[in-house]
Every structure is written in C-alpha cells, then in structure tokens.
Amino acid sequence: MMTFRHRLFPALAPLLLVAACGGTPSARVYVLGDPVAPHQTIEVQSQRPVVRLLPVSVPDYLDTREILRRDRSNELTASPTGLWADRLSVGMTQALAGFLTADLRGVVVVTGQPDAPPARQIMVDVLGFEIGPDGRCILNARWETVSGDGGKLLRRENDSFVEQAAKSSDESVVAAMTRAIDRLALQIVAASRNLEVANAEGDNDTAAHRRRAFYTSQR
Question: What are phi and psi of 189, to 5 degrees?
Fold first, then answer.
C-alpha cells in the first residue's frame, strides 16, 4: 500500500500584493506546490528520457486567480484576502510538474514542447477541485499516460483525494490543496514505476523467447 508522505510547508510562499491605495488592505498571492530547492539544477534533456506533462485541464469556473470556496450547495465565494499567482490550471500544472520532477527518478519532466519526441506524455483532467464549508478539500481527477507520440494508451485512472484544511485561513486552504496535488503525483509515479517493471519483464520474456528459439534451432 502506498503511504502518503508529509512534505514540508511553507511550500505556499505567500507574496504580498501591494495595494494601489495606501489605506486598502493588501491581499496575499499564493502558489501551489513546494519551492524549488536552491541546489536543484537543470537536467540536460539529451541525457535522460523526457516525460512531458501536458497543461492540466480544470473546469472553466475554477480556472481563475480567485481562491474559491463552496459555501452552499450551489454557491461559490471568492476569498477577499488571497489570490493565486496564476490561473488555477497554470499553477496546478507547475505544482504537479514539480512533484513529478522530485519523485520520478531517471527522467526529465517538462511542461513545454521538448526538443525531441518525449518517451511518454501525461494528461490530467481535473473534474473538481474545491474547498467545502467544512474545510474539506476534494480533488477529483482523470489522468492518462500515453506513448510519446500519443498513439498508445499506457495507463488510465480516475482518482479522488480528500484533504482537511486545518483552519479556515487561505494558508490552510492552499496547504490542503497542495497536499491533494502531491497525492495525485504519487499515484502517477506509482503507475509509472509499474509500467517500467512491466516493460522490463516484457523485454526479458522476449529475450528468453529468442534464446529458446536459438537453442531449438541448434538441435
């Protein structure tokens, strides 16, 4: 069973948004995911297989810079004290790419078009990503891993994650959403490792078959 690892926060990195008027309360700007480690270096793409994460798709009503909460069954309210640094789809793509970069060993994860065709592509379609009135963060996502040219489906999953915000503050909400994205990344990483094992076993089976065929022909 896969165990969720607790990452260190502050990964939230709130940035102060300077108000245009001196007396207007300032809002804080938040990013999802962990900060980039100071020692992290850029990998040369030619040295390792490239995995491309396509832009994450989120519902149109969520793809905004406003931090939204569902107060009632059909009512969303924007936080008056916090904003996303980017639209949610952009921020989630970057956060997910960061987690995959940290966890997928032996590959380079990119979000743009690589110089050469990638080894695999990952597509994520977020069906829902909201904070309820009880502080529960629910992430529902459908994701696929396909071949580098997009012609072969390697894995398809539907996942749902629930994280509880410790408080009603923006910081707690962002932390809960970040943990949910982290758990999605772990699911994708686990599936990727299973694919690598299956591919390795397939290669071994093919090699064994060739050896048996050779020895049979020599009899």
Answer: -65, -45
